[in-house]
Amino acid sequence: MTSMTAARLATSTGLFEIQNVAIPEPTASEVRLRVAYAGICLTDIHFIRGELAAGMPDAVTLGHEVVGTVDRVGDAVTDWQIGDRALVHPVEESRTSTRVLGVHYDGGWAQYVVAPDQSLVAIGPEISMKTAAIIPDAVSTPWAAITETAQVQPTQSVAVWGIGGLGFHAIKLLRIIGAAPIIAIDPVEAARDRAVAAGADFALDPRHEDFAAEIHRLTDGAGLDVALDFFGSPAIHQQAFDALGRKGRLVLVGVSDTTFSVVSAPNLVRNAKKVLGHYGSERRHVEEIVKLARLGRLDLSESISAVYDLADVHRAVENFIAKVDNPIRILLKA
Fold it and tell me: Which residues form the Enoyl reductase (ER) domain (predicted)?
């Protein structure tokens, strides 16, 4: 077999379609995976809608959450063998550039994917392929935001705005870290209920007129130590900033297409508040999540809401956008 099926986006025209393309060959330092599953992320939807990232090629196979089995290795690769089970850490960073799987080079919405050997992370036999597929972003990104950017410590109060794929996993991960209380914030009742089931101590509707008073009460009058925004909107930015206590940290993970601003600069200075941006994760964060999952500390079995065949990608994307059954993560099966 010399050709494969791939879901590709022509960035110049906006055409998104299933194509029959040549199976990629790995270079000396690359590994090819036979893809098992690939996740659908809101970032992919942005691209399909024409909201492109800098440096994207004229055409690209989407998909940055990928897991599969090693199918072929480059001549210089010594750490991987055919048949190994692995996921791909999607972000390659240097001091001057960032290169992302499914953004700057062909991703995992295909039957095969090629990636640098150093970007692969072994998953072992303890983790299912389905749950491993979402680790590279939906789980490792909130983990890095919590442990690295926000530097959450045990018993610190943390609120999570936006209980989608990343926010849902943030609740579980905050429970592991020992944050207390954990407060889930979402206008959708089903999302709030899901957050409580995942480990949130409290769940609030951000539209409630007593919202600020509730945050004050739940934090014993101190305000939040950390506010995590996984949605990305000016309304959330101001609300989360106002909910912070002294030396509180607002971490922005959700991407907003508007200018960031918050009112009350004196409050920022006098209370020593911090506003921090966060993007993705590093390989070590992925490895940490894999370890937690392998040891049974982190259960991701309920995170997969639906699985669609790759050929049915358009319906999968439509249902993701429409939030059919309020999904946590939707997978494509290659």
Answer: 14-332
Classify 202 in phi/psi space as left (phi over 0), alpha (psi -120 to 50) or beta: beta
Q: Give the domains, in start order, of the chain with CATH numbers.
A: 3-134+300-333 (3.90.180.10), 138-277 (3.40.50.720)
| The two three-digit tokens of residue 74, written as one number | 């480059």
Q: What pLDDT does 257 receive?
A: 66
Q: What's the CA gap between 112 and 24, in Å, rounded?
A: 7
Share of the chain above pLDDT 90, in %: 88
> Model's pTM, two decimal places?
0.94
What share of the chain in percent tops pLDDT 70?
Answer: 99
- DSSP string covering 276-320: EE-----HHHHHHHHHHHHTTSS--GGGEEEEEEGGGHHHHHHHH
Q: Cα separation of 183 and 195, whole Å?
A: 9
Please calculate the CA angle 247-249-251 and round it to the nearest 5 degrees: 170
DSSP character string of 176-232: HHT-SSEEEE-S-HHHHHHHHHHT-SEEE-TT-TTHHHHHHHHTTTS-EEEEEESS-
